């Protein structure tokens, strides 16, 4: 733990210079964080959609239209997850290729 804190304190305290590799990676990390947030929001939305569907089932109604919307949301979530994973993989490749 102490080594981690020491590693975090070494280096320049200023933000990365515009146009530098560090600035570019910081922007990519921010974009990944935004996409992860969108994925989390979509998952919460899908979870919220399940309540009315369960209610329709317990009341004997046909939830097929609601389930269709849930399937579409799940497809969007899966697409976001694949994009996010690809972005993370690309960033990891850049980090491993960057000079240490």
Give a short summary of the structure:
It is built from 3 helices and no strands.
Write up this protein.
It is a single chain. The protein has one domain (20-97). It has helices spanning 2-9, 21-58, 64-97. It is 80% helix and 0% strand. With 100 residues, it is mainly alpha-helical. It has 3 helices and no strands.
What's the helix count?
Answer: 3
The ordered string of helix (H) and strand (E) elements is HHH
Query: Over the alpha carbons, how many angstroms does the gyration radius reach?
Result: 21 Å
Instruction: Kindly give the count of domains.
Output: 1
Large-scale geometry = elongated
Please tag this protein with its features.
single chain; 100 residues; mainly alpha
Question: Could you outline the blueprint of secondary structure elements for this entry?
Answer:
Layout: H1 2-9, H2 21-58, H3 64-97
Helix pairs in contact: 2-3
């Amino acid at each position: 733990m102490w080594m981690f804190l020491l590693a975090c304190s070494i280096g320049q305290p200023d933000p990365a210079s515009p146009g530098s590799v560090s600035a570019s990676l910081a922007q990519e990390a921010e974009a990944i964080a935004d996409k992860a947030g969108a994925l989390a929001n979509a998952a919460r939305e899908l979870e919220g959609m399940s309540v009315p569907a369960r209610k329709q089932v317990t009341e004997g109604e046909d939830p097929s239209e609601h389930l269709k919307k849930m399937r579409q949301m799940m497809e969007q979530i899966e697409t976001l997850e694949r994009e996010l994973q690809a972005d993370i993989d690309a960033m990891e490749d850049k980090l491993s290729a960057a000079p240490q």
